[in-house]
Amino acid sequence: MTAKLGHGNVRFMSSANIYQVVTDRILAALAQNIVPWQKPWRTSAPTNLLSKKAYRGVNVLLLSCSGYSSHYWGTYKQITEAGGQVRRGEKGTPIVFWSMFEKMVDGKPKTVFVLRQYTVFNVEQCDGLEALKTAPSDLQAPMAHEALESAAAAILEGYKGAPQVIVGYNRTKACYKPSLDVVEVPGREYFNSPEGFYSTLYHELAHSTGHKSRLGRIGVTDVDAFGSHRYSFEELVAEITSAFMMHHVGLDSEAAFENQAAYIQGWRAKLGENPKWIVDAAGKAAKAFEHILGVSAATLPADEEISEAA
Questions:
Q1: Is residue 88 part of a domain?
Q2: Which of 200, 152, 155, 195 is nearest to 175 (CA)?
Q3: Cβ distance 43 to 132 under 8 Å?
Q4: How far apart are CA 197 and CA 190, in angstroms?
Q5: Are 93 and 124 in a shared domain?
Q6: CB-based contact 185:200 (threshold 8 Å)
Q7: Residue 71 domain flag
Q8: Pairing relation of β-strands 108-122 and 93-105?
């Protein structure tokens, strides 16, 4: 299958260059003490203005930290089709997607995935789309803290085929043990806030999705390597997954961190060394998030559909 590239504004750069562009934007946010995966959303998740499908993976991070109130985005062509006009001088935001191509290798068809870049604009950068700009209905309604905690706890109850979760056995350490398929977290009373407890729980549950019986991520299935480095790729997957979960239930993931400066410096160093990490980790985090929620793949747009709606 060949992805259709008919919506304009696609840039045919090498994958290495696209990874670097995306990583540079994330590093720029971190330099301003903004952690894109720690609930940067001010409204609903970033959504394409024509398809009304939410963006996924690293595109959520790229669009959410851009500072606009509206969650609607589109390419220049899509905005024109919707009856709008990008204002002169406005700069777009890059997003990425994977397109699929088939080519013959040794006489046999082989599917090849190629990373592409689009440029999109927020409707607040446009004229003629006032109806899509932020309305009170776009904003997340505040919930009582008890209701938030109830919603957060329900996530665990709904995780089908979940690992065993032990709360309170270990008072000083949270961990996932792949060999036993067990998550351990300190009791709620040992955390300074509900946000701290649930972000930690979701982080460990994210690791559990990598078990060989679930999504089979090498950072988890290779037990000897698991947990060997504080800022490993698997840790980044778990961090982003946890943030997606926190936003899903309406809890503030940023409130969970007490030493934010050291946390940010650590990730700036690691991402600076590994330009591919943020794109790959966010993609795997999206799959982990969907696995925990039990979202059927059949209800989600395929990668090539996302590219066409980009």
A1: yes
A2: 200
A3: no
A4: 8
A5: yes
A6: yes
A7: yes
A8: antiparallel
- Coil, strand or helix: which one is 10? strand
**Phi, psi of 111, rounded to the nearest 5 degrees:** -80, 130
Partners of residue 38 on adjacent β-strands: none
Q: In terms of domains, do 59 and 166 share one?
A: no
- Rounded Cα distance between 242 and 258, Å, is 16
Tokens encoding 253? 């993931």
The amino acid that residue 284 corresponds to is K
Looking at the structure, tell me whether residues 117 and 224 fall in a common domain: no
Residue 166 and residue 228 in contact, taking contact as beta carbons nearer than 8 Å: no
How far, in Å, CA of 224 to CA of 135, rounded? 51
Are the CB atoms for 94 and 59 separated by under 8 Å? no
Are 155 and 281 within one domain?
A: yes
Indicate the number of domains in the chain: 2
Q: Which helix (H) or strand (E) holds 209?
A: none
Q: What is the mean pLDDT of each run of 10 residues along the chain (310 residues)?
A: 38 76 93 82 79 92 88 95 96 89 83 87 94 62 72 88 92 90 94 88 96 92 59 88 89 70 89 93 94 66 34
Question: Does 3 map to a domain?
Answer: no
Residue 96 pairs in a beta bridge with: 117
What does the DSSP assignment read for 111-133? Answer: EEEEEEEEEEEEGGGEES-GGGS
Do 197 and 179 have their domain in common?
yes
Range of the domain at 273: 145-297
**Is 266 among the domain residues?**
yes
> 241-261 burial, b if ≥16 CB within 10 A, otherwise e?
bbbbbbbbbbbebbbbbeeee
